[in-house]
Amino acid sequence: MKAEIAVPAGAPHSRILGVGAYRPRRIVDNAEVCRHIDSSDEWIRTRTGIVTRRWAEPDETLGVMAEQAAAKAVAAAGITPQDITCVIAATFTHLMQTPAVATEIADRLGATNAAGFDISAGCAGFVHGVALASDTVRARGGHVLVVGVERMTDILDLTDRSTAFIFGDGAGAVVVGPSETPGIGPVVWGADGSQADAIRQSVPWDALRDNPGQPFPALRQDGQRVFRWAVYEMAKVARQALDAAGIGPGDLDAFIPHQANERIIDSMTRSMELPDRVAVAKDIVTSGNTSGASIPLAMEAVLSSGAAASGDTALLLGYGAGLSYAALVATLP
Ligand SMILES: CC(C)(COP(=O)(O)OP(=O)(O)OC[C@H]1O[C@@H](n2cnc3c(N)ncnc32)[C@H](O)[C@@H]1OP(=O)(O)O)[C@@H](O)C(=O)NCCC(=O)NCCS
């Protein structure tokens, strides 16, 4: 007879216990962006909702920003760094192919008992991370730190009229831990790889190795294609996530989608027929699109502004490069 493999006792349920944010010091307005592209403050505001964004300075590295956000999330969760069993970093602007930035974040925090790995799912990465964290806690207990952190400016071409004005830098983090009652619903996730070229790095790293003279690879996107896909497909995904959690739009207190474009957020809000009383996160106005960091930053903003409160029911919806997406319902910390 074969030996039986022991498995850990998981938690009955999982929940987000704390959130923290780090916004880089430097505020960049549309006039500054327009120094490099033929555009205007009015065009950028009308087409995207963005008024300002934060751009990180050299000392505000991924590790530094993530540590600041994570330390706040850990304190808010009422745990210590040693209680963290796993660090998941959602990022696609970590310019070292290896090691994962999550291991640096764990070390900076003093999370000496934690595993650490990065996930690459573009702007959908953070919600992928929360889903993995939730399942990990329910399977084996512990506390999982999920950090969304980006220095989009490291991969931006400031002269590219289709990307330069959209993106910003920053970090947001949550701690996911055990709960007696359900606090994180099932994830609805997927990807349409047939449209992978709609958001992409201009050339792979080996092209730079083989042709050292060529420009540093930058982020490129087909903005209109991404816009159409997000407006038509993501409202369906939002409804599927509500169905999976067994609730309707009227049960929501907050909607915290990826902050890609204010017009996309407004369109999704209309097609989901969200009641007016639902707080809709609009952190994009002052943060721009911070990719993997946008949802935890927006979560921190709706909570600190008082638009939503601890214990509220929120829909989180991330989407972007891949084209990938992930949505779930969660109780706010
Ligand atoms: C990028 C985005 C703001 C562009 O807006 P848009 O309305 O689709 O703009 P279009 O490309 O259709 O161009 C419309 C007009 O604006 C002009 N335009 C394009 N970029 C411009 C800029 N930066 N400034 C001023 N005018 C611009 C175009 O030349 C065009 O002019 P025309 O009508 O005279 O031909 C929009 O497509 C978008 O937000 N897409 C989603 C991108 C995104 O969120 N990506 C991240 C994924 S998570």
From TrEMBL:
Keywords: Acyltransferase, Cytoplasm, Fatty acid biosynthesis, Fatty acid metabolism, Lipid biosynthesis, Lipid metabolism, Multifunctional enzyme, Transferase
Top-rank taxon: Bacteria
Subcellular location: Cytoplasm
Pfam families: ACP_syn_III, ACP_syn_III_C
Active site positions: 123, 258, 289
Catalytic activity, EC: 2.3.1.180
Family indicated by similarity: Belongs to the thiolase-like superfamily. FabH family.
Descriptive protein name: Beta-ketoacyl-[acyl-carrier-protein] synthase III
Lineage: Bacteria, Bacillati, Actinomycetota, Actinomycetes, Kitasatosporales
